[in-house]
Amino acid sequence: MSEHSPVKDISTEVSFSEYEAKFKALADKKRLHILHLLSQQNSCCVCDLSELIDMPQSKLSYHLKILLDAKLIIKETRGTWSYYMINEAELNHLLSPELCCIFKPSRC
Amino acid sequence: MSEHSPVKDISTEVSFSEYEAKFKALADKKRLHILHLLSQQNSCCVCDLSELIDMPQSKLSYHLKILLDAKLIIKETRGTWSYYMINEAELNHLLSPELCCIFKPSRC
DNA sequence: CCCTTTCATCAAATTATTTTGATATATTAA
DNA sequence: TTAATATATCAAAATAATTTGATGAAAGGG
User: Fold this and answer.
1) I need a labelling partner for B99 at 20 to 30 A (CA). Which of A93, B5, B47, B72 fits?
2) Distance between CA atoms of B1 and B3, rounded to whole angstroms?
3) Whole-angstrom distance, CA of residue A81 vs CA of residue A47
4) How distant is C1' of D3 from CA of B107, in Å?
């Protein structure tokens, strides 16, 4: 690695950690399914999603938190309801245009 | 999910499994580092990579296998040496152009 | 043939992630 | 106020992924 400056190495390190978290969030069939469902509605509350995906609420909340922490989805609270929606800008930054049909709301 | 045909559901299922494996392979700092290093050489053998990344050979082989199984890298055997290189087509299909500077050989 | 190098694979130990069921908080409705 | 609903979080159990050190196979050199 002799041709790299320390500064570049540090910033690359930081990127690796950041992307690790985002790819980790994507690295699960159930979460890909959640993203797919969210991409088909404008926004969706936990209880509706729980029925759609046939998953107990605590399990779903666990997975939503992982997606939220990775900033792949956005949360909006109204009363006791939590509405989740796709963070399209973030997915655009991360994924190829070819993947948009599966994981992003705006169709190809 | 009433508005979807079974066929579409099945193919989406298949996609989810396929992408799960690929994102799982990307979901690790060490493997991102390996991809980054490979993207800076045309190809690299395990022993050289092991020194570059300062990682014991068996551990490195474990991670290379995960990347190889996900088809994110390509392996070429010559004698006792195994040379690994980035599978650029696959990464292009998967990742956004913005990520190319970090994980793909051809610079932006 | 024997020795060395390169690499893959294995089993055991360790560590991380996920699932489950229970509980807690906040909001709304009666 | 009481009851019901929506959601988050917790701790324990269950699963899955990673690390480690050892072993073995294949190739090449002397």
Assistant:
1) B47
2) 6
3) 9
4) 63
Q: Which fold has domain A7-103?
A: Arc Repressor Mutant, subunit A (1.10.10)
- Supply the ipTM of this predicted assembly: 0.90
The per-residue pLDDT for range A50-108, each reduced to its tens digit, is 999 999 999 999 999 999 999 999 999 999 999 999 999 999 999 999 887 777 666 66
- Count Cβ atoms within 10 A of the Cβ of residue A44 and give its class: 0-12 exposed, 13-18 middle, 19 or more buried: buried
Q: Is A57 exposed, middle or buried (0-12, 13-18, 19+ CB in 10 A)?
A: exposed
Right CATH for B6-103 from 1.20.120.530, 2.40.110.10, 1.10.10.10, 3.40.50.2300: 1.10.10.10
The CA distance from B81 to B73, in Å, is 16
The rounded distance, in Å, linking the Cα atoms of A93 and A42 is: 20
Chain A positions contacting chain B at CB under 8 Å are 1, 12, 15-17, 19-20, 23-24, 26-29, 32-33, 36, 52, 92-99, 102
- Residues 6 or more apart whose Cβ sits within 8 Å of residue A68: A74, A75, A84
| Closest Cα in chain A, distance from residue B85 (Å) | 17
